[in-house]
């Protein structure tokens, strides 16, 4: 785990919607919590189950290399991601954004808080 000062410094250079190529490194409970992704930073990436397809058979498997966008980052010292590839994104993403994060389109390109 990175120190708080490093986490704060790193976040200053990150933007909502910023795209990283990542490798799925762990799918601990398919269909239950989400997937862990290595995006080449000193902190891990994570895609929440809510942003993945409903059927876990449609999730990217360990070893999959694909693009991910920064969705969120907070004090957990982990970068929350969303899949860029629509095959790995929840079917109702537009509805999801409308209901839970309507400010998303205007946040793209802005620095993380």
TrEMBL record:
<feature type="domain" description="S1 motif">
    <location>
        <begin position="17"/>
        <end position="55"/>
    </location>
</feature>
<protein>
    <recommendedName>
        <fullName>S1 motif domain-containing protein</fullName>
    </recommendedName>
</protein>
<dbReference type="GO" id="GO:0003676">
    <property type="term" value="F:nucleic acid binding"/>
</dbReference>
<dbReference type="InterPro" id="IPR012340">
    <property type="entry name" value="NA-bd_OB-fold"/>
</dbReference>
<dbReference type="InterPro" id="IPR003029">
    <property type="entry name" value="S1_domain"/>
</dbReference>
């Amino acid at each position: 785990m990175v120190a708080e000062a490093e986490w704060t410094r790193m976040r200053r250079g990150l933007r909502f919607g910023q795209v990283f190529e990542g490798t799925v490194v762990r799918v601990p409970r398919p269909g239950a919590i989400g997937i862990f992704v290595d995006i080449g930073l000193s902190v891990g990436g994570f895609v929440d189950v809510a942003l993945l397809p409903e059927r876990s058979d449609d999730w990217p498997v360990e070893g999959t290399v694909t693009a991910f966008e920064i969705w969120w980052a907070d004090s957990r010292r982990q970068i929350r991601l969303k899949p860029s590839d629509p095959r790995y994104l929840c079917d109702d993403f537009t509805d999801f954004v409308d209901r839970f994060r309507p400010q998303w389109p205007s946040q793209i390109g802005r620095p993380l808080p």
